[in-house]
Amino acid sequence: MNWEIITFIAYFAILLGVALVFYFNGTNKNSEDFFLGGRSMGPWVTALSAQASDMSAWLLMGLPGSILAFGFGQMWIGIGLALGTAANWILCAKRLRTFSKAADDAITLPQYLTKRFATDSRSLQLTCALIFLFAYTIYVASALVAGTSVFTTLFPTVSPKIAMFAFLLIIVAYTFFGGFTAVCWTDFFQGLLMMLALMLVPLVVCIGHSDLLDPTALTTVYEYTDAATGAVTQCAFGGGIFDASWQDIVSGLGWGLGYFGMPHILVRFMSIEKPSMIKKSSIVAIVWVIISLFSAVLIAYFGRMVMGAELLTQGNQKLVFIAMARKFFPAGICGLLLAAIIAASISTADSQLLVASSSFTADLYKPFFRKNASEKETLMVGRILVLILSLIAFGIANSKGSGAQAIMDMVENAWGAFGASFGPTILLSLFWKRFNYQGAVAGVISGFVVDLGWLLTGMTDATGIFEIIPGFFASLLIAVVVANLTAEPNEKAVEIFEQGIKAETE
Fold it and tell me: Are 372 and 141 in contact (CB under 8 A)?
């Protein structure tokens, strides 16, 4: 009896069970319930679901694999993300909760940006919604590819298409039936599982198997040949964290700017039950990030000493967590630890599906096509769109042509595009009373254009600077200039700002 497989399957059966419980209990009575959980999320659920939806499988595979191969200089992205997480919770969380409530109970980010400035214009709402719909469909396709890669590594006899379809069914089922509440609760448990899995591996190695640690592996240079390109890569652990180039340090820290404009994270702030709960949520979230990132670094460090030759000579550094879990844990526990990797991919994909669906129904369908649509109709359209977007993502993920690959490659720019487009505008809307709708439109468009232009013109490669940095600061500058050159915000927009500030202090 294969306990690894049994435990793995049982975990995901429980996830589906949670979604069905929320569905049959009638939790989703209206669109605010389905897309925002009725603004009833507690501090622990808000914090851990936000972090689980943020980190994805990168935390368990990409980060430790990169450090395993090339050393502590690869940590700067993790440091940037940790600092960005803390800044986002401290600066934005409470205000976005109070401001979105004051802005006529806005339930999506585009809706908030429109209602915050009390305007009848829908241009910004339409622009944002289209960006969300396009980018998040690609994001989900990317998550399907990542999850399938892990799934087939764990179960080599299962074909990739079957694995991907099974993975898709799990995501769609509890997003379709459970809505935001189920997604948050399952992401809460998945966040706990991810942190526990990351902590257990280095603890077990350090306490019970320290005799296996071989420090000479840190100075050994390994090589592997890429099967597709024939390129030879040298894996030298390198020096300390400050031996990285200034471009790597600046770009790594720049990743933290993305949080201020990341819709599937910001929507968690809008969903919490009371603004007073934000303080506890922020502490939980920041502690989770620090522990999880530090544990991922330890996995890479110990993995280099225990099985560096085994992994690096084959170019399998991203599998270090899987290899370490299988080496040091019995099958039953290992199955649960490995489920954490798939859980990480799912917790990101489900949130992105829900944000894309909510943006379509609230920002496109209802205001532009069916202004008098009932709550029942809106809910049904939202659920149908979850299915449609999932099928499109499945098609993209399964495509092999150069066009499909080009689309998939754009995922690498999505974090920068979201952060540069929406980050400065969100911050200004929360902290500057004089900020207006024209400034918001200019900020979103300029951030997107500069970010994408920096990438497409080859400036990212030429300078070594991640495109979010010029995009973010260009958006900030242009938004401020345009706001100062145009009319002051109307009385209603000023009132919304003052209501948000007042509610924050209560």
Answer: no
Separation CA 282–CA 90 (nearest Å): 7
How does pLDDT run along the chain (506 residues), one tens digit per residue?
Answer: 577 778 777 877 777 777 677 666 655 555 555 555 555 567 877 887 778 777 777 788 888 888 898 888 888 988 999 999 999 999 999 999 999 888 887 777 888 888 899 888 878 888 887 777 777 777 777 778 777 777 777 777 888 888 888 888 877 776 766 666 667 777 777 788 888 888 998 999 888 788 888 888 888 999 888 776 778 888 888 777 888 889 989 998 999 999 999 888 888 888 788 888 889 999 999 999 999 999 999 999 999 999 888 999 988 888 898 889 888 888 888 888 877 777 777 777 777 787 777 777 777 777 777 777 777 787 788 778 888 888 888 888 777 655 444 554 555 677 888 899 999 999 999 999 999 999 999 999 999 899 989 988 989 889 999 999 999 999 999 999 999 999 999 999 999 999 989 887 76
**Please, are residues 350 and 174 in contact by the beta-carbon 8 Å criterion?**
yes
91 to each of 97, 103, 331, 431, 499, how far by Cα in Å? Answer: 12, 19, 43, 9, 17
Burial category of 168 from C-beta neighbours within 10 Å (exposed 0-12, middle 13-18, buried 19 and up):
buried
Task: Give me the residues paired with residue 232 across strands.
Answer: 225
Using alpha carbons only, what angle is made at residue 347 by residues 367 and 357, rounded to the nearest 5 degrees?
A: 15
Name 225's bridge partners: 232
Sign of CA dihedral 125, 447, 419, 43: negative
The rounded distance, in Å, linking the Cα atoms of 44 and 485 is 43
- What SS3 class is residue 295? helix
Contact present, 453 and 399 (Cβ < 8 Å):
no
Question: What's the pTM?
Answer: 0.84
CA-to-CA distance for 109 and 92, rounded, in angstroms? 13
